[in-house]
Amino acid sequence: GYQPTSARYKIQMAEIGGLAETLVLSLSLVENQLTEKLWILKALQHLSTSENNCRQMVEAEAASRLCLYLNGADPSGQLVFRSSDILWKLLEFSSKDEAINQLSRLECLHALKEAFVDLLMHGFRHCDYQLRNDLLVIATLVAENPAAPMIESGFAELLIILATFTEVKLPNPLVKGFKLTYSYEDFEMKKLLFNVIGVLSRDPASARLFSDHHVIPALLSYVKPNQKPGFHDWSAAQYEELQLHALAVLASVAVLLVEKYLSCQANTLLLVFLEWCIGQDPFFGQGNSFHGTGGRGNKIAQMRYGLRVLRFIVSLYDEAVTTNLCDQGAISQLLDILKYAGNKSKERETTVLLEIQADALFILSVLCENDVHRKELFSCEGIATLIPFFKMDPKKLYSGLGHNCLLFSALDCLWSCVVGCYIAEDYFIEKQGIFLLLDLLALKEKNLSNTILGILVEFCDNPKATLHLSIWRGKRDQTSANLLVQLWRQEELDLGVRRDQYGMIADVKRPLATSFQKQQKVISLPANCPSFAIMEISESIRAKIYSLFCKLGFENLPGLSPKDFVTLAIIQRYIDFKVGEVWSEICAEIKEEFRPVTSDERTLRAIAKVSESTGRMVLGQQTEVLENQFQQKVEDENKAYEEIQAARTQREFINKSWEDFLTRTSNYEALKKAKRLQEISIEASRSKTKVQNGPVHSTDTKKLHATV
């Protein structure tokens, strides 16, 4: 008989037959028939659990069709519920970008807005509140699409007004009659509204709406110490979560409205708030939310997001902002925060504490850059705070917690807050700062080397720094000159510069050219655009190494091997080679465009010849160095051979002497012969002239029976 098919087979047949697509298209046939429409939506709900069905539905533009039917007459409320559930499935199981693009149409946003407002104003059941929040999440996803007309539809303005409704307390016809119940669903909506503001802040066009509806004052109302168990009828944990979320959003909004930010005295509020964060008064954060990471039982999370706002606003490099901060003692306060976070890190290092320190260092860098007076304010206390960062265990750079970023921030702070101020420079040098930088450089970390070399070049304008550079000794008594030469060789190896097996120049015409430069075709560039040869100076560390050698000198450098001297010959002529390289580019560009006149061609040829001659001269110096090394090796070998030969001769003499001794003791005739030879030798050694009346000394010992 007949057997029923399995549910899996039915689903498979529905997918193959395109049932989901057909049902989506059939919605247009039942626009005014609520019962049939709800049955189709119910069927689509079941079908939307399959990825294949969701893909077919999106191809049939289900997202936009469902959105347009959201506001149909439906006393039961099932229409909005089922449609939103299907939209969620489409966003989850199909192409999210395609679904968002369909929802980003102006008519769809109007429909979504009307459905949201209806639930906002007239919803009273628990499920209505949940559905309202679901629509708000969908609206947030649409707002992330830069092409979505959120502002044109008026949806953005409505959401901004709702987000600041309880803080601004100004009547607005768009939300007339709305009351916040402080239920869990309303708390979730408040967080979602803050999140929407953060998303909208990515569009500079939203700045006008933020200003008109007082978003910055509303967010700043949360920038204050938590002194009560709860605020505005929120519980302590809920208020803390909203506070941290408000600070996170404020960082994004403040950069769009700098004047409004300053007029609200936001810097003052943030500095007072940060002062409370490092204070001793008891406060036990809940640390429950995403933004509360690391903040349980302390004020670390508040400090983190307070500093983040300052980091965002100072990164604009607006003079009014930095002056306002410095006038209120921000430099001293930031140093206190660094000390506080550093002490906490000694107990237990976390990603959040490292981020706090990195942000504080970055803010100090911006505040002190190009201002000697601020650098003097930073100098002693700031340098004492900086030094421990340069003594960091190198193994921590690979921990993944953020030590790498922290070290970069410390180096940036050193460059901006110390270099250029002689008082600060001298204090840093006295604290053996140059030695610490060279110790870091000796790690040969490629991403660190460029920054450290740049700082050392700046420091070497100070004679004390050059002295410290020359007397530094690393592991195995390595000198700074040897370290710099090794870094040069490694850089050339990475860049693909041609050298022979001994490190000598292989291409006298283009001795510095990298593999990338050789692959590039001739490109005619305008006068204000740097060529590849010029760009290479800023991107490579070779120019910085050359600058340091100009300070150290190229003669009488300790700790260099012959191979190092071969490389040093190239370094010494770096600027000449670079000039020749630029002229080579100029010549190639000219010949690409037109033929130069005879006199110009002669000049260009002479310049190229000079550059090539320099290369050949350096090659000759390198050859001479290697020949001297070879000669020295030969001399050392000869000397070693002579020492070996002398030692062997001496050993043979000792052996012969021992054999003679044994012969004399065992052969009486040999002993008598030795005695006769001794007497002859003594007699021959006497003077031939007779000394008048002089004594005669006998050389024999009477009655001697020994054989020695």
From TrEMBL:
Cilia- and flagella-associated protein 69 ARM repeats domain location: 2-586
Family annotation (InterPro entries): ARM-like, ARM-type_fold, CFA69, CFA69_ARM_dom
Cleavable signal peptide? none
What are the GO cellular component annotations? non-motile cilium; sperm midpiece
Please name the GO terms of the biological process aspect recorded for this protein, alphabetically. Answer: olfactory behavior; positive regulation of flagellated sperm motility; response to odorant
Q: Which organism is it from?
A: Rhipidura dahli
Q: Where is the composition biased (Basic and acidic residues)?
A: 699-708
According to the record, the residues making up region (Disordered) are 686-708
Task: Write the protein's name.
Answer: CFA69 protein
